[in-house]
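Researcher: We're teaching a course module on how sequence relates to structure. For the next exercise, students receive a sequence and then see the predicted structure as tokens, so they can try to spot secondary structure elements on their own. Here is the exercise chain.
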Amino acid sequence: MTLTQLTYIVAVDKFKNFGQAAESCSITQPTLSMQIQKLEEELGVQIFDRSHQPVKTTKIGSALVTQARVILTESQHFHEIIQDNNGEVKGEVTVGVIPTLAPYLLPLFLRKFSSKHPLLQIHVEELQTEQILERLKNSSLDVGLLVTPIDDPSLESTPLFYEPFLVYASEKSPLANKAKIQQTDLNSGDLWLLTEGHCFRDQSLAICKNRKRVTEINRNIKFESGSIETLRRMVDQETGFTLLPYLAAQDLGHRKQIKEFASPVPTREVSLIHNTHFKRHAFKESLVETIQKSLPKDIHITQTKNTQVIDLPMGTK
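Model: And here is the predicted structure for the students to work with:
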């Protein structure tokens, strides 16, 4: 058994196709197939069911692929420990970012960070929270940028900043004439929401303390979106309100639809998170520093007394 063979079975499990897996490993398909067959003969098990298209990983194969990922990650740590000891930030890194952060946070820091570390190849993927957590645990992601706290002993998080929530209210809404918004002012029946799976949805519902009936204007409309921008446009065209993270409002100027909360201001804790086997500390320190220095001045990197961090449902598991 070799690390090369383990790399090949991980690739086939990922692509469910021998040809694509071979291409990703920069080898020919016959070479990849031969090495996997040798591994199967050595272990005395069938890792892949080749009679299916796409290729299907067997039950025992799935367990072996999971362990292969662990072994490959641990072997990579040898190089990472040496690089970290030398203060080097290079190689490849994969970062997962949740959709309510990616379009607003990445443009603030990614180019600066990339220029700072020209020998580092950065892969960024936009993923929902559950996907990031799963892939951190199986080591197919190095770090995630997402909302915490998350109570999971296999993961470690470093708070980056505390981002206030804002109200984006229709001019037809009763909220339009308010200077500051109290959480008890919010009627969840008038709230335009993201689809299920977004942690921002759960936090938005937690902030809306009022559970009054839906207004007459929106009684026959139920719409959920995967995009904050779509929700904002629905508010402009219809009525009601939606909630925005602070960074999402930076390009909107001083629109009267944007309302701040009264103290304590509902806030989300944004963190960098990784699994407990993570070794690239020089990379992490540089990334944390770059992100924090790139934030608008109104975003705090520590929690202040006039803020209320909104917990995630999964954070209490």
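Model: If you want an answer key for the exercise: The first strand starts at residue 48 and ends at 49. The mean pLDDT is 88.
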